[in-house]
Amino acid sequence: MIATEIKTDEATIRIHDEYCECISQDSMSHLSQIITNSYKRRKMKENDISHEDLYKIQAQ
Q1: Is the pLDDT of residue 12 over 80?
Q2: Which of the 8 DSSP states describes residue 16?
């Protein structure tokens, strides 16, 4: 059962839990950061990029 669904231009997040309460904006931002970091780690692993290399790329 989908307890909450949050749609943005970039993503749709569905929380499947019958005990879910309304999500605050702070919680949504935190969840978004967790998901973003997960995708970054996955992409780094796929491309065999180290953390140091990633920071250099982001600094440019």
Answers
A1: yes
A2: -
